[in-house]
Amino acid sequence: MEITGNEIIHQYLRHNKKFPHVLCPGCGHGIVLGTLIRSVHHLGLPKDDVVIVAGIGCSGRLAVYVDFNTVHTTHGRALTFATGIKMANPKLNVICLMGDGDALSIGGNHMIHAARRNIGITALILNNNIYGMTGGQSSPATPEGAVSMTAPFGQLEKSFDTVQLACGAGANFVARGTVFHVNNLEKLMIKAIERPGFNMLEIITPCHTQFGRKNKYKTSVEMYRWLKANALDRERYEELEESKRGDKFPVGVFVERDEPGLEERYAELKARFSAGRNG
Amino acid sequence: MVKKNKGNSRVTVYPDWCKGCGICIEFCPKKVLEFDAHGKCSVVREDDCIHCGFCELHCPDFAIVVTEKKSGETAS
């Protein structure tokens, strides 16, 4: 009998780890992990050909639970480790799991340069608008006006638009999804894993414990209702008048280019030189 | 393909893995699930389940499995 849904996920988990996992009740990171496993299963990739590289933060905990090759790296440097892995063995599918603080502030530099190099990595940025693990400090993705531990009267700074940043830096594929729209997210994730070059997928995931409770979301379910009400298809968002946009944000594919990745160009260069020497 | 026949699905919740976040209970279109006395999810109206798969896909703790009933079982 064909297995479905969570039974697939149970096959990919490391059952010698302690379950349930460490994430808070209602945290969207668990849904991202489930979607990632289903996407890999859908593509039929062997477990040994997938490398999960995670940074520090709540998102870094996800790598612990899955039975792929996993690397738990230093803060913000997930992409640098992933670059090394991809250049050394281009056959591997390298997937980076990073949080918003990890990818945009400490690792912001690596993020733009990995996009510029267009190296064949799938970067999943789990944006929960806050530094969740360390106690709820403002991150570069905390929206203007939102309350956090380091901004008790509301955040004064503007937040990063991750998607525009990656588009500007030259990534091959840029998309945004939410954990509420799981089927859509799975389609985007499958694309992000199978395409060549640098593929960036931003995933909006709610953090109720550190962000929601300070910002008038009484339960984690209310944050999911907010996602349901405010995530709009990119086309529908662009049709909307600017005055009516408010909290709404676009989801979907933003950039789709077909440029060869750095590791392919490097292999071509190597082939050219070895041909020159022999002939 | 999702079959929208009522009474053909079996919903299983693993209480050890459930953290009681309530996402499945809130968004279930047929209100199949409810909180039990321990604050965890429990199945109360299994016969109403239309196998949409929402709870299974959205459970952050992988604690719900929805399967089709085996041929020997009948809808009670």
Keyphrases for this structure?
heterodimer, A: 279 residues, alpha/beta, eight-stranded mixed sheet, two-stranded antiparallel ribbon, 13 helices, 43% helix, globular, B: alpha+beta, two-stranded antiparallel sheet, 4 strands
User: Within the CATH hierarchy, at the fold level, what is the topology of chain B?
Assistant: Alpha-Beta Plaits
Beta-strand share of residues of chain B = 15-25%
The second-level CATH architecture of chain B is 2-Layer Sandwich
What integer value in Å does the Rg of chain B equal?
12 Å
List the uncertain runs of chain B.
Answer: none
Instruction: Spell out the helices and strands of chain A N to C.
Output: HHEHEHEHHEEEHEHEHHEHHEH
Q: How many domains would you count in the coordinates of chain A?
A: 1
Total count of strands of chain A: 10
Quaternary state of this entry equals heterodimer
**What is the approximate shape of chain B?**
globular
* Order of strands across the main sheet of chain A: 2-1-3-4-8-7-10-9
Distance from N terminus to C terminus of chain A (CA atoms, Å) equals: 56 Å
Number of strands of chain B: 4
What's the CATH H-level homologous superfamily of chain A? Thiamin diphosphate (ThDP)-binding fold, Pyr/PP domains
Low-confidence stretches of chain A: none
What best-fitting shape of chain A do the alpha-carbon axes yield?
Answer: globular
Helix content of chain B: 10-25%
CATH class of chain B: Alpha Beta
Any overview of this molecule?
The complex is a heterodimer of chains A (279) and B (76). By secondary structure, chain A is α/β, with parallel strands linked by helices. In chain A, 43% of the residues lie in helices and 18% in strands. Chain A has an eight-stranded mixed beta sheet, sandwiched between helices. A two-stranded antiparallel ribbon of chain A has the order 5-6. With 76 residues, chain B is of the alpha+beta class. Chain B is 13% helix and 21% strand. Chain B has two helices and four strands. Chain B has helices spanning 23-27, 54-58; strands spanning 9-13, 33-35, 41-43, 64-68. The chains are: A alpha/beta (279), B alpha+beta (76). The interface between A and B is medium-sized, with 29 and 23 residues.
